[in-house]
Amino acid sequence: MPRYCFLLQVRPELLAEYRTRHAAVWPEMLEALHDSGWRQYSLFVRDDGLLVGYVEADDLTVAQERMAATEVNGRWQESMGEFFDSLDGRRPDEALLLLEEVFNLDDQRARHHDVDEYLRRTELPQS
Questions:
Q1: Cα dist from 109 to 2, 5, 60, 100, 117, whole Å
Q2: What CA–CA distance (Å, rounded) separates 63 from 82?
Q3: At CA 95, angle to CA 14 and CA 29, rounded to 5?
Q4: What is the SS3 assignment for 48?
Q5: Cα–Cα distance, 9 to 84 (Å, whole number)
Q6: 40, 55 in Cβ contact below 8 A?
Q7: pLDDT per position as a tens digit, 53-111
Q8: For the segment 11-56, what is each residue's pLDDT rounded down to a tens digit?
Q9: Which strands, in side-by-side order, build the sheet including 39-45?
Q10: Does residue 26 sit in helix, strand or coil?
Q11: What are the backbone dihedrals phi and psi of residue 69, each rounded to the nearest 5 degrees, phi first?
Q12: Which pTM value belongs to this model?
């Protein structure tokens, strides 16, 4: 399943409240995310407000479109907008700065295992 990582900037003076709100996300928001195809969704934040998000989805654009169509997402985004810098008139879920994945341990190990297995099976017998 494709993996996505993104950045946002939480206003440092609102970081404590941001953490509090995410300690108990609305149950209907949790279900909407799940039903829209968001998997393994996690948020990480530094003390200066740098927010790093990680999510897996078959297609992030489709998952975002499905979320945008839900009533609860509109309410959530409106309630969260005050927490972020540099939204430029967008909702937080529209301002994600996606990062390029350049390394994944499990993917590389699997590729090496596949090559090793292929070589082992196709090795010519020694005379």
A1: 17, 21, 25, 19, 12
A2: 23
A3: 70
A4: coil
A5: 6
A6: yes
A7: 999 999 999 999 999 999 999 999 999 999 998 888 899 999 999 999 999 999 999 98
A8: 999 999 999 999 999 999 999 999 999 999 999 999 999 999 999 9
A9: 39-45, 50-56, 3-9, 97-99
A10: coil
A11: -80, -5
A12: 0.83
Return d(Cα 110, Cα 7) in angstroms, integer. Answer: 28
Phi, psi of 43 (to 5 degrees): -125, 140
Q: Report the 10 Å Cβ neighbour count for 60.
A: 18
* Domains of the chain, start order: 3-101 (3.30.70.100)
Of 67, 68, 72, 50, the closest CA to residue 5 belongs to: 50
Q: Is 22 a catalytic residue?
A: yes
**Residue 81 host element (H or E):** none
Give me the catalytic one of 22, 34, 112, 113: 22
The DSSP symbol for 34 reads H
Report CA 43 to chain centroid distance, whole Å: 7
